[in-house]
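User: Working on a comparison across species. This one is NERD domain-containing protein from Escallonia rubra. Can you predict its structure so I can line it up against the others?
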Amino acid sequence: MWAELICGLIVYKLVRRFFYDDGQDLFDVETTDSNAIFSVADRLEKIYGGKAYVGLRIPDADTSSRQNIDVVLLSKEEAVIISVKNFSGFWSIDTDGSWVCSGRNKHKNERHPDPVAEAKRQVTVLESYLEHRGVALPEGYFSCKVVCPNPKFRSIPSTSFPHEVITYEQWVQLTPVPKSMFSGWIKGAFRGGKKDLQESIHEKLTFTLSTAPTWDRLELKSSKCILGEFLEFKGKQDDTQALRNIRRSKVNSLIIQKTSMFGLAPSKVQVLYSTRVYRTEGASASDWKEVTVRSSTEVLFQPQNSTQVRKFKLSSIVSMSLSA
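Assistant: Here's the predicted structure for NERD domain-containing protein from Escallonia rubra:
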């Protein structure tokens, strides 16, 4: 009986592997903070309006490195840097400003550097970057907030966190309101009462943020998105050779199109990719090209804040965006 069960399991896995759409990559990926970041950005756009820029990597002249910024929410009135902390557990603030989580580790409390101080540092770095690119902003135009969207997040005591922190309880209270009606903590969190920027300055800021360095973005099935760095393609030599032109110096995005019959996984996929256009006066839109390769070809991708390189089959990918 046990032999029959084992054989049946092996046959099932082989059938799943070779005949059905391969979604196993999705189950092998640990839950990442990327989903929380995209969820927060999407909700803020819907509720508050404006434009959310996600996953920025801004050059920091002081440290000769890149400063990661989760979200920048931009409107004509102001801009807010949003640091998303997908924390769970019971958190309190220590005397040095660091956050301490108790209850998850019996032997040692989990500690995290002050997220508010980190967010304020991000404001300074971004302002310096914008100034370097010729964007002059009114003093105090940027503010910062720390959003804790995880329903398992608890603050101890509930009133101990600074006003820059939006706890889960406050986050779920955020609801759409008419633009002329802002009340309660929503106004304090995302409205500073500043005058509108001149239209020309706002357009310049919009362009600069849209062309700022970002993490690469990988979109998987079930609307899963991962921020990180695309490394290379792996697979048969003829497939990798066909994909040789897809590199960040030439390509800014790609889309995977799959065709299948009777629910079976396709052996081939079409990869549509747009060539990167360094816009000048009168430059045309990006040029889309197509290449067909095996669906088993893999993308090597290193998620943000991870030392582990992940492999994703093209059959499990919807799209990928590459930062210049």
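For your comparison, note: The mean pLDDT is 80.

User: Helpful, thanks.
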